[in-house]
Amino acid sequence: MDISELRNGQEKVDIEATIIDVEEPREFNKFGKIIRVANATIEDESGKIKLTLWNQDIQKAEVGAKIKITNGFVNEFKGEKQVTSGKFGKLEFLGVSDASSSVKPSKKEKVAEVEKESEEELDEKIDEDGSEDF
Length: 134
Fold this sequence. Notes:
Blueprint lengths: L12 E10 L3 E5 L2 E12 L2 E8 L1 H5 L4 E13 L2 E5 L5 E7 L10 H23 L5
Parallel strand pairs: 4-6
Antiparallel strand pairs: 1-3, 1-5, 2-3, 3-4, 5-6, 5-7
């Protein structure tokens, strides 16, 4: 099944796609339990759609990873179509795609890169001055 074929309310969805973006997770309390949720954007050759990730699946998701959803379903949240494995479906992480080099980095990756650059600049300044007083 292709992403372009997915319709709101559709059940028994089986697709394979590549993660192209992962948003920061959010937490909320439901019946005294902390629940984590995050959105990812996935794509195949036919289009893109949001993927809802829950709890432990969030940490497995990375840009460039190929995923497979079996028995998922499509719903709409805030006017945007989304796919999820839900309670009765299955989400599998199949590894990183060869096409990941053409995928844009996530916000988390961009922040980490800037922090690393800042640390390297600070190390260079300390090396030049011989001290930490600047």
